[in-house]
User: Fold this.
Amino acid sequence: MAKRDYYEVLGVNRNASKEEIRKAYRKMAMQYHPDRNPDDKTSEAKFKEAAEAYEVLSNDEKKTKYDKFGHEGIRSGFGSQGFTDINDIFSHFSDIFGGASIFDDFFGAGQRTRRRRTGGAPGSDLKVNLKLTLEEIAEGVSKKIKLKKLVKCDLCKGTGAEGGTSTKTCPVCHGSGEVRTVSRSVFGQFVNIQPCNNCNGEGIVVDNPCKKCRGDGRIQEEVTVNINVPAGVYQNSYMTLRGEGNAGRRDGPSGDLIVVFEEIPHEYFVRNNDDIIYDLFISISDAVLGSEVEVPTLKGKAKLKIDPATQPGKLLRMRDKGIKHLNESGYGDQLVKINIEIPKKVNSKEKDLLKELAEMPNFKSFGNKDEKNFFKRFGF
Ligand SMILES: [Zn+2]
Ligand SMILES: [Zn+2]
Assistant:
């Protein structure tokens, strides 16, 4: 079967720009991707054909040869390599899809593991601790943090190769990243599989390493990351920002950024799930006569009514003044625990009044009926 013209395959004209060629290929690759057309031989053939056309037309040297001599001109270069496996196409062209994740996004995570076989080593995860006040937790907050991480080298676009063009499949392992050696002994035949030394198991080698990243494809940089913290997070709970960790070596997939939340102890409040507890101290007279007092809340001061005869230890509930529930609507409450403040010293007039008060019927120690009965039983 005669080979189709590469420009025709991609549906572009002969003076199409690099970007037009790239876009055309991307469109075809998406359309004929085998994951979208399972067991469809025609689609697979078109997918391979487009990949082959792009391989030539995206490479200046090969394109020039092809333009001059047609298919004959590039037979020696491309033909010797060939694509035997769909996955080889992915490893060759991962750059066009922005490296790490576009295939994952479009075609599911299954592709990822397969592509890792020949792509650069994945980047490591990063962990940061993020301190939050109770006020921030109560409503959620957007925070900017600075961190140092490995990012894709801008000079070589993550390929590790100078000029961004001269990576090639490792000639030793043919892109598999592994080398098999077979040895025979009296016990039989042994197959030993080891990572390829020539490419460090990556399946790709670089002829001229990029000067900026020394062939690694990534550089250390300080970046600002925006973190949207949802309301209601807990001490030591965390969120994972996919792909925000260290960039992978030579365009390998990026790691994740794990943000661990830390709660800063509050001046007034103690958290109990989504409720907050506040210890309120009131005077004896306020407890007996009732009063209206001001209490702090997470959103400023609020008035709180104290009923007459309020007992120490009583919990007053201020509805919806607590923390917003995580992932559901509604708020916790603010619980105000009543404490009676006993004066540490009294002057002589206060002392006299208290003594007088102590003799009054409602201030006698045995004012409690149950207690009276209790003591009666023992003959008091
Ligand atoms: Zn570089
Ligand atoms: Zn190798």
Summary: Residues 170, 172-173, 177, 196, 198-199, 203 surround zinc ion (ligand 2) (CB under 6 Å).
